[in-house]
């Protein structure tokens, strides 16, 4: 069967992602061969890139799997009518329930994008999806527990993180609704247009009479291949930034409230930590940065980091992503400045 250039291009991207991951795994298990005195010598900085890259991927993959299976369950078992029935008809009235819903599901920022994408495709309004996108990675019970244990000696950061995340998720959703209303901001994937691709070629589409479990597995496999290559690209870029970025420069300009907040938000974006583990890293900065800047790190990172930005650009229209990034950045920074001025 003859393949179109678009199909071949898609397969090449998938193959490149798998090759990159395979190369880093081989490097990790053969680390001794590449250190000083080994068979080959690689600069320590590149070995560090390898270690950080694998750390991000290994940390993220379980949550990506969780996300794609939830997405597949939504595809198979949740109808468009059900979503339309339970989402409030008034746009602004839907914001509060969406933020509250984010407190129920144990989904981090690695897993939330496929879930929100699927819900929007099923008919959830864009602004409700945005609220869920920024609220769920912070407000969920697993993140609450990890943050509590990391800051149990002083719960100021704990209360600031969750109070701010709840309020800002509603504000961000309202701003995005004002700008985009309910317009379609999802990109149509080439695999969806063609009905195939690497994953689809490997797994034939399930027949309509297939069981729900079979269809869930098929959809999850397709989604995992689709998301996985962008996760790998994002993890690689994040590892490069973590290794080669001069952190001492950022630390040097972090002496004031506004500068330290900006520095910690930049750290959160570059480090691309999972929201279920970032509190322990944030606690280690406690002696160097203000309470407000630590809170900024913990609120901004799960809403927007380098890893999920790559995925956002892959699945949402560029204009939407740029405006979303701007709104999240400005609202988080401004709110932290206000809190530091009057409360913290």
UniProtKB/TrEMBL annotation:
Keyword Transmembrane: yes
Protein origin, superkingdom: Bacteria
Species of origin: Thalassorhabdus alkalitolerans
TM region(s), chain numbering: 15-34, 46-74, 94-116, 128-151, 157-180, 224-245, 251-273, 280-300, 320-343
UniProt-annotated location(s): Cell membrane
Entry keyword set: Cell membrane, Membrane, Transmembrane, Transmembrane helix
Family under the similarity heading: Belongs to the UPF0718 family.
Matching InterPro entries: DUF318, UPF0718
Protein name per its UniProtKB record: Permease
Main location: membrane
Membrane topology term: Multi-pass membrane protein
């Amino acid at each position: 069967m003859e393949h179109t250039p678009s199909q071949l291009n898609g397969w090449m991207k998938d193959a490149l992602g798998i090759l990159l991951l395979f190369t880093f795994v081989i490097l990790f298990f053969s680390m001794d061969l590449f250190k000083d005195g080994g068979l080959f010598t690689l600069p320590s900085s590149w070995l560090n890139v390898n270690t950080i890259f694998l750390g991000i991927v290994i940390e993220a993959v379980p949550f990506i799997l969780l996300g794609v299976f939830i997405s597949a369950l939504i595809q198979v078992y949740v109808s468009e009518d059900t979503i339309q029935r339970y989402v409030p008809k008034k746009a602004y009235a839907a914001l509060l329930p969406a933020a509250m819903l984010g407190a129920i599901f144990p989904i981090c920022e690695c897993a939330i994008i496929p879930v929100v994408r699927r819900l929007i495709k099923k008919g959830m309004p864009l602004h409700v999806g945005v609220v869920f996108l920024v609220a769920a990675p912070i407000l969920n019970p697993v993140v609450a527990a990890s943050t509590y244990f990391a800051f149990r000696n002083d719960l100021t950061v704990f209360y600031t993180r969750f109070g701010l995340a709840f309020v800002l998720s509603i504000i961000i959703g309202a701003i995005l609704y004002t700008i985009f209303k309910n317009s379609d901001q999802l990109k149509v994937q080439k695999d969806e247009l063609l009905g195939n691709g690497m994953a689809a070629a490997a797994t034939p589409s399930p027949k309509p009479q297939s069981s729900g479990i079979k269809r869930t597995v098929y959809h999850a496999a397709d989604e995992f291949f689709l998301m996985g290559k962008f996760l790998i690209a994002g993890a690689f870029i994040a590892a490069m930034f973590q290794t080669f970025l001069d952190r001492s420069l950022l630390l040097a300009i972090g002496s004031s409230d506004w500068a330290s907040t900006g520095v910690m938000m930049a750290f959160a974006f570059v480090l691309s930590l999972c929201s279920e583990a970032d509190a322990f890293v944030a606690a280690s900065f406690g002696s160097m940065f203000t309470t407000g800047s630590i809170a900024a790190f913990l609120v901004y990172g799960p809403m927007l980091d380098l890893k999920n930005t790559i995925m956002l650009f892959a699945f949402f229209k560029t204009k939407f992503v740029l405006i979303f990034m701007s709104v999240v950045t400005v609202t988080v920074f401004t709110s932290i400045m206000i809190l530091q001025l009057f409360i913290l």
